[in-house]
Specification:
alpha+beta; Jelly Rolls; Arc Repressor Mutant, subunit A; four-stranded antiparallel sheet; 9 helices; 45% helix; 25% strand; binds adenosine-3',5'-cyclic-monophosphate
């Protein structure tokens, strides 16, 4: 797919005319990152806005001992790096490519001009920030109130609601990241994540395949949360 066709599918640019898309392509630069590359580090100065064209990235916080917490995983047509450009503060988190990833990069001045000249983009970005804040609040709630089984149940249900497929036996989700990363989303170790998943499997609630989880009994999974 060429870049212009791709941009037509990006929600924040969906109202753009052909001419506006052409102008956008003049200011945006394509950049490729190999799997596991750090795209930028927390606390660096932020000068660019990033739009994901292909691949996926994780937004993380790390401790000095190298423990990692995942704030979010973002996919094609989603953006990151807007916060530093909007508030002038350093990068709030580190961003790492989870697989080979291509992005479009727009510099601070061009990004801010886009917002001034196209208030509908500013509104769409605000809407996304609001949805991200909701998700972050939910993550805080999970970490404050739920035990390990509750945390795993909630993250599986959230993924199922966002991008699960209903099939005859239940809801199938692609688990396109590792058990370690699943644990890192909800603040538990890889070992605990594996143990809890195994218990759910033994109880007939889920089936675990290599890269998929099949939710067989959604109500029982929901019961794990409270
Ligand atoms: P910035 O602070 O410039 O750099 C890190 C980026 O990660 C940030 O902009 C956002 O784009 C993104 N980010 C930070 N926190 C979250 C979150 N909780 N959910 C989704 N994206 C986030």
């Amino acid at each position: 797919m060429d870049l212009k066709d791709f941009l037509k599918k990006v929600p924040i640019f969906s109202d753009f005319s052909e001419e506006e898309l052409n102008k956008l392509l003049e200011i945006a630069k394509k950049k490729d990152f190999k799997k596991d590359t750090v795209i930028f580090q927390k606390d660096e100065t932020g000068n660019f806005f990033f739009l994901i064209c292909s691949g996926k990235i994780k937004v993380i916080l790390e401790t000095e001992e190298g423990r990692e917490g995942i704030l979010s995983i973002l996919y094609p047509t989603e953006f990151f790096g807007e916060m530093s450009l909007l508030d002038g503060e350093p990068r709030s988190a580190t961003v790492v490519a989870l697989e080979d990833t291509s992005v479009l990069i727009i510099n601070r001045e061009d990004f801010l001009n886009l917002l001034y000249n196209h208030p509908q983009i500013a509104l769409k970005i605000l809407r996304t920030l609001s949805l991200r804040l909701r998700k972050a609040n939910r993550q805080i709630e999970t970490l404050m109130f739920l035990d390990a089984p509750g945390r795993i149940a909630r993250v599986i249900i959230d993924i199922a609601m966002e991008r699960g497929h209903s099939i005859e036996d239940g809801i199938l989700i692609d688990l396109d990241f590792t058990r370690q990363e699943l644990g890192n989303i909800v603040g538990i170790s890889r070992e605990t994540a594996i143990r809890v998943l195994k218990t759910f499997e033994d109880e007939g609630i889920i089936d675990i395949k290599k890269n998929h989880i099949l939710i067989r009994d959604l109500s029982k999974l929901r019961e794990k949360i409270y």
